[in-house]
């Protein structure tokens, strides 16, 4: 049985567009993922136009997915501080999603690799979110290659997330993962979204990451998103994601 607190096999926030959220959720569960997602994060433009409408859409999708499968659900949206939005309004709206049963709330934070951007406002917003049992706060930091170890340490300490999603290339310096806060996880974006990488090669890269962070602090996802892939490719890639997680961490994850 999947561990609903660790979520080793974590789908990317962006999936191929689907008009049938129930079928999309069932496909993810049948693939063996530890958490499922509607696959359509709120965009920056959507959040700027109407924060209430944007969060209402996610709330409706959360309800549709939860009614389709008995699995933890992940939702994703931008960080409000990067958009200059009312932090307290967004804190309340995100809190509502958590209260409604979201188990991973993933915020896009890649822009904070820029040392001229101050993450303190978003750190304040995130510090005020509810953290019920089983809930995990995640930040998508984009490509590991875009971060220095020092900047990674500063930003992740400020944001205070439980999970840090990083797209990892074949030549990336994995030693930078040691900059993550000691009680947090790294979600390794090692799965090729086109499904072109062999499982053994992915396992070797996880082993390399585990030499930096304890394997209990690691999880796995797809590098980037699957929104540009055909449905059959998406299903195959998600099955590989789940299979690699089982091979590395075992069935009792």
What does this structure look like?
By secondary structure, the protein is an alpha/beta fold. It has a single domain (21-249), classed as TIM Barrel (Alpha-Beta Barrel), CATH 3.20.20. It has eight helices and six strands. It has helices at residues 21-31, 44-49, 51-68, 87-99, 120-127, 149-159, 199-210, 231-249, and strands spanning 74-78, 104-108, 136-143, 163-167, 185-191, 218-222. It has a six-stranded parallel β-sheet with strand order 1-2-3-4-5-6. α5 links the parallel β2 and β3. The mean pLDDT is 95.
Strand content: 5-15%
**Low-confidence parts, pLDDT < 50 over ≥5 residues?**
none
**What is the tally of helical segments?**
8
Overall number of strands: 6
Largest sheet: 6 strands, parallel
Rg computed from alpha carbons, rounded to a whole number of angstroms? 17 Å
The portion of residues assigned to helices is 25-40%
Give a quick precis of the structure.
With 253 residues, the protein is an alpha/beta fold.
Secondary structure elements and their pairing?
Elements lengths: L20 H11 L12 H6 L1 H18 L5 E5 L8 H13 L4 E5 L11 H8 L8 E8 L5 H11 L3 E5 L17 E7 L7 H12 L7 E5 L8 H19 L4
Parallel strand pairs: 1-2, 2-3, 3-4, 4-5, 5-6
Helix pairs in contact: 1-3, 1-8, 3-4, 4-5, 7-8
Q: What attributes does this structure have?
A:
alpha/beta, single chain, 39% helix, 253 residues, 8 helices, six-stranded parallel beta sheet, 6 strands, TIM Barrel
């Amino acid at each position: 049985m999947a561990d609903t607190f660790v979520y080793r096999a974590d789908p990317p926030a962006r999936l191929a567009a689907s008009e049938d959220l129930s079928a999309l959720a069932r496909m993810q569960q049948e693939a063996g993922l530890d958490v499922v997602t509607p696959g359509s994060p709120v965009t920056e433009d959507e959040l700027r136009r109407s924060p209430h409408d944007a969060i209402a859409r996610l709330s409706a999708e959360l309800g549709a997915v939860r009614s389709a499968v008995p699995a933890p659900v992940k939702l994703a949206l931008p960080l409000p501080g990067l958009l200059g939005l009312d932090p307290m309004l967004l804190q309340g709206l995100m809190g509502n999603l958590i209260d409604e049963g979201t188990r991973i709330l993933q915020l896009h934070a890649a822009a904070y690799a820029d040392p001229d951007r101050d993450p303190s406002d978003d750190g304040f917003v995130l510090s005020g979110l509810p953290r019920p049992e089983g809930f995990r706060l995640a930040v998508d930091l984009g490509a590991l290659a875009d971060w220095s170890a020092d900047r990674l340490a500063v930003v992740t300490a400020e944001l205070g997330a439980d999970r840090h999603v990083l797209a990892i290339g074949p030549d990336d310096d994995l030693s930078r993962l040691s900059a993550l806060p000691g009680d947090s996880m790294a979600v390794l974006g090692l799965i090729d979204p086109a499904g072109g990488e062999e499982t053994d090669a992915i396992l070797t890269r996880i082993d390399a990451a585990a030499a930096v962070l304890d394997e209990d602090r690691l999880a796995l996802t797809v590098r980037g998103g699957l929104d540009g892939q055909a449905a059959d490719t998406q299903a195959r890639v998600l099955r590989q994601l789940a299979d690699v997680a089982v091979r590395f961490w075992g069935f009792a994850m």
